[in-house]
Amino acid sequence: MSRDPRELMSELEDDVRPVLLAPAAAIRARGRRRALRRRAAATGSALALVAAVAAGSMLLPRTPTMPAGPAASSAPACVPVELPASTSEVKVRVFAARNGAEIVQDLRDRGFDAVAGDPGSAPSAGSVAAVYVGPATVGQGRLIDAYLLGQAPIIHDPRHTGDVVDLAIGPNFQQFATPTEVNQALAHLTYPC
């Protein structure tokens, strides 16, 4: 039943004898070539990963840094921005050289408390429009900016007191954004502080 180990070893020796083995130096050289290929592949992968991270970091928006020293102390103070709960809380004074009544009515249709401003005292409008806000109306100005899809600069003036936002309409103004576009603009809203 059980066989003698010497007999088993003899059979194994007969089976192995016809197998040709490569010289030890050739086996070691093949191992070195394999190790070199593995190192080259690992290095290539690491370089590709570093390049991808570097390219990705270049695509990320950079936040501006405030300068140190005396210039930093003269920078305007940060104002916390709270958006109004609804457009009915926003009072807008509209300055428009043309179609002023239509623009005021369009804002009223959207729920804003809009009035026409005196065109003789209109602030600079820029290309599309400009939104003038004071410390108390920053959030309302950001909401109006969403209706303009960010095409109008928001001009902060600490002397602009009261709860009215001034909206100066420029010559390239076409129309206000749709509700869907406004929601998308509000979702991507960033705050300056």
In short:
With 193 residues, this protein is α/β, with parallel strands linked by helices. Helix content is 42%, strand content 12%.
Core attributes:
single chain, about 190 residues, alpha/beta, 5-stranded mixed β-sheet, 5 strands, about 10% strand
Structure annotation, total helices: 6
Query: In order across it, which strands form the biggest sheet?
Result: 2-1-5-3-4
Sheet having the most strands: 5 strands, mixed
Bin the strand percentage.
5-15%
Structural class: alpha/beta
Overall radius of gyration: 37 Å
Q: Helicity, in percent?
A: 40-55%
Number of strands: 5
**Straight-line distance between termini:** 88 Å
Q: Give the integer mean of the pLDDT values.
A: 81
The unreliable regions are 68-74
Shape: rod-shaped
Structure, described:
The protein is α/β, with parallel strands linked by helices. 42% of the residues lie in helices and 12% in strands. It has helices at 5-16, 24-59, 70-73, 100-109, 138-147, 179-187; strands at residues 91-96, 113-116, 129-133, 154-156, 164-169. A five-stranded mixed beta sheet has the order 2-1-5-3-4, covered by helices on one side. It is rod-shaped. The N and C termini lie far apart (88 Å). The model is unreliable at 68-74 (pLDDT under 50).
Mind sketching the topology for me?
Elements: H1 5-16, H2 24-59, H3 70-73, E1 91-96, H4 100-109, E2 113-116, E3 129-133, H5 138-147, E4 154-156, E5 164-169, H6 179-187
Parallel strand pairs: 1-2, 1-5, 3-4
Antiparallel strand pairs: 3-5
